Each structure stands twice: as C-alpha cells, then as structure tokens.
Amino acid sequence: MPIHHIPAPPHVKAPPLSFGTRIGDLLFISGIPGFDAHGNLPDEFEAQFANIVTNFTRVLTEGGAGLRDLVKVNVLLTRAADVATMNRLYAAAFGPAPYPARTTCVVVALPDPKMLIEIEGVAAVAKP
C-alpha cells in the first residue's frame, strides 16, 4: 500500500517529520504549530489557533480530506487558562457538531517557548 507524505510548508522550520502521512483511507496529521505564512509565531493565542486551522486545512486538503473528515484530534495547550477560549474557537472552526473525538492536554512546554497550542489529528479519507 503506497504511503503519501505531506511535507511542512517551506516557511516553517520543521524538525525531521512529515506534516501529514496518508496510508490507505487514513491521514495522520502531525502536531501543527501556529506559525503564519511568513514563519512567524504570533504572541496571541487566538492568532496561533487561526494559523493552526489554516495549516491543518492545508494538510487535510493535500491528503484528500477536509475538517469534516477528522475522526480524532489531540490538542496540547501550555496554559490551562486557554481551555475555554480554545473550546470556543474549536467549536467555530471544527463545527458544527458532530465533532471528532478529542483529547485536550495541558503540558509544561512545547518545542518553541512561544508555542501556546499545538493540534494533531487523524482523518478518514474518502476513496476517489
């Protein structure tokens, strides 16, 4: 079964990984940070979240899927105080219900000290 790798966009200084990997009907999306189109990481949580949705959607599209095809999402936050804001933004971006299964964790840190949130997921891709 062929494996299709989706690289990080050129503006993101990514570690050695694919932003997405599709095998068969499944698309696995690596943790996506909130970098903008110029490779900058904004200070504001809302801006990072918006950038993640843009980058996440790009990976989904390149893998043959969309936000409604997500079956599992993991959200990593560095501040518990952002959970309510994340839930509001998440509902707007990933809705309407039904939503994919989700785990939300508050972690001590993410790879870049300015990262406030990272989202990863798995999508079920329709056959052509």
Task: Reconstruct the topology from this structure.
Elements: E1 3-6, E2 20-23, E3 26-32, H1 45-62, E4 70-77, H2 83-94, E5 101-106, E6 117-124
Parallel strand pairs: 4-5
Antiparallel strand pairs: 1-2, 2-3, 3-6, 4-6
Helix pairs in contact: 1-2
Can you give a write-up of this model?
- The chain has helices spanning 45-62, 83-94; strands at 3-6, 20-23, 26-32, 70-77, 101-106, 117-124.
- With 128 residues, the protein is α+β, with helices and mostly antiparallel strands.
- It has a single domain (3-124), classed as 60s Ribosomal Protein L30, Chain: A.
- 23% of the residues lie in helices and 29% in strands.
- The longest helix is centred in the middle third of the chain and has 18 residues, at 45-62.
- Strand 2 (20-23) and strand 3 form a beta hairpin.
- The mean pLDDT is 92.
- It is globular, with a radius of gyration of 14 Å.
- Helix 1 (45-62) packs parallel to helix 2 (83-94).
- It is built from two helices and six strands, in the order βββαβαββ.
Mean pLDDT level: 92
The CATH topology label is 60s Ribosomal Protein L30, Chain: A
Would you count the extended β strands for me? 6
What is the helix/strand order? EEEHEHEE
Radius of gyration: 14 Å
Helix content: 10-25%
Low-confidence segments: none
Protein name: RidA family protein
Pfam families: Ribonuc_L-PSP
